[in-house]
Amino acid sequence: MSFQGQTEYEHKGPKPKKGILLVNLGTPDAPEPTALRRYLKEFLSDHRVVEIPRLLWLMILHLFILPFRSKSSAKLYASVWTDEGSPLLAITKRQGAALQQQLDADYAEGQLPVVIGMRYGNPSIKSALKSLAEQNVRDITVLPLYPQYCAATTGSTFDAIARELQSYRWVPSIRFINGYHQTPEYINAIGQSITNYIKQSGMPERLIFSYHGTPQRYLEQGDPYYCFCMQTTRLVVEALGLDNEHVISSFQSRFGKAKWLQPYTDVTLKSLAEQGVKRVAIICPGFSSDCLETIEEIEVENRDYFIDAGGETYDYIPCLNDSQTHIDMMHKLIKQNMV
Ligand SMILES: C=CC1=C(C)c2cc3[nH]c(cc4nc(cc5[nH]c(cc1n2)c(C)c5CCC(=O)O)C(CCC(=O)O)=C4C)c(C)c3C=C
Ligand SMILES: [Fe+2]
Ligand SMILES: [Fe+2]
């Protein structure tokens, strides 16, 4: 076993720096079946994501999921792909650049480098950590871009960083921000998006907070994610003084046959329309960037469910993305956590 090191290191060398690592889920390299297969294989082989006995799951994954889903998901990704590539990656890059600009105004330029890493795919966590080490960063604040802690996302980010650092001779100091679903800055940022929407379009009959789902079993086994999602909704509702009767929290992006967190977003939309609700607005506070799951699943697929069942107006309120409020929120969160 040999460790990665910096043999050119001088004991009287440049002053060590602090740095920031922003991590998001990751995305395929291209909207094509081969790239999707590589991405889905890495993603769905993660035991934090799919908690089924290994051997059984790997057989199902390789025999039944990858051959079919790589093709169907490639088509969906092709429908959201932009000139800058996958929306998730393009937006995360912009967030990193904007945060760097803001931090450069506080510290001397280049003193506090910001790098981005993707849990699955590229740029990898390995390359992000390497880039920080090469910039002489010895103290890293990690911000996984998931407001609500979940073992499948935040926990898995921690695993990947720890695993990579096992190969380092000189392990840096690490500060890991494991969530921010209840911070006043995040609640305020989501609240502002909703207020702007209501000012422009008026209050909808129902405002839906749609979060990415997980298997129900994860909640029963102690994952706090569900409760954190509900807490986010409650805090936003309280901050804006909204009427609870008009607000619904629901869960989207179901995968597989098991029972997932409920109510399901698609079922909720169909049933609202069937009950005669004509106008809804939907926001996805658990996603820090728009991505396949919001642009395709929420803006397109779920709109169709609502309209086809008799609904008339369906408005999607975009994610915080690289808005100034979001960058200010990240800036503050990092400064509060950095010592
Ligand atoms: C926001 C938090 C997320 C949780 C929690 C989460 C759990 C989770 N996801 C899957 C399966 C898939 N998710 C996929 C896409 C996807 N998931 C998230 C976020 C969370 N996932 C994002 C941001 C994205 C979009 C990525 C992008 O490139 O735009 C996909 C891939 C797309 C597809 O084929 O449908 C899968 C598969 C599971 C099993 C899971 C379990 C807890
Ligand atoms: Fe997902
Ligand atoms: Fe989806």
From TrEMBL:
GO molecular function, one term: metal ion binding
Pathway: Porphyrin-containing compound metabolism; protoheme biosynthesis; protoheme from protoporphyrin-IX: step 1/1
UniProt keywords, alphabetically: Cytoplasm, Heme biosynthesis, Iron, Lyase, Metal-binding, Porphyrin biosynthesis
Gene3D superfamilies, per the entry: 3.40.50.1400
InterPro entries listed in its UniProt record: Ferrochelatase, Ferrochelatase_C, Ferrochelatase_N
EC number: 4.98.1.1
Metal-binding found in the keyword field: yes
One GO CC annotation: cytoplasm
Superkingdom of this protein's organism: Bacteria
Predominant subcellular localization, coarse grouping: cytoplasm
Function: Catalyzes the ferrous insertion into protoporphyrin IX.
Name the UniProt record assigns to this protein: Ferrochelatase
Organism: Neptunomonas qingdaonensis
The organism's taxonomic lineage, starting at the top: Bacteria, Pseudomonadati, Pseudomonadota, Gammaproteobacteria, Oceanospirillales
